[in-house]
Amino acid sequence: MRALRAAQIPLIKKAKARQIADRVQEIKQFTAAVAASVQQQDAATGEISHNVASAARETKEIVTVFHEVASAATETRGSAETMLDTSKSVETAATDLRTEVEGFLEKVAV
Fold first, then answer.
1. CA dihedral for 80, 81, 85, 91, sign (positive or negative)
2. Which residue, among 92, 23, 64, has the nearest Cα to 84 in the 3D structure?
3. Distance between CA atoms of 70 and 14, rounded to whole angstroms?
4. What angle do CA 20, 21, 26 make, to 5 degrees?
5. Residue 25 in 3-state DSSP?
6. pLDDT truncated to tens, each residue of the chain (110 aa)?
7. Whole-prediction pTM value?
8. In a 10 Å sphere around its CB, with 0-12 CB exposed, 13-18 middle and 19+ buried, how is residue 76 labelled?
C-alpha cells in the first residue's frame, strides 16, 4: 500500500502542477484582458479630454464673436442716433430755409 501511495505521489504532484499551470494561464488571460480594457479606457479618456478642451476653445471663440457682435450693435445704435440727430438738424435747417425763402419772395413780390 505504501508502494502504491509512493507511486501515486509523483502523479498527484504532476496533476497539481498542471492545475496550477492552467490556473496561472487563466490569470494571465484575465490580466491581459484587464490591461486591454485599461488601454481602451485610457484612449477614451484621452479623447474625452481632447473633446472637452476643443469645446472650451470653441465656446471661448463664440463668446468673443458675441462680444464683437454686441460691440458692433452698440456702434450701429450710436451711428443711428447720430443720423437721427443729423436728420433733425437738416429738417430744422430746411424749415428755416423755407421760411426765409418765403419771406424773401413775399418782399420781392411786393
1. positive
2. 92
3. 83
4. 95
5. helix
6. 666 677 787 878 888 889 999 999 999 999 999 999 999 999 999 999 999 999 999 999 999 999 999 999 999 999 999 999 999 999 999 999 999 999 999 888 76
7. 0.53
8. exposed
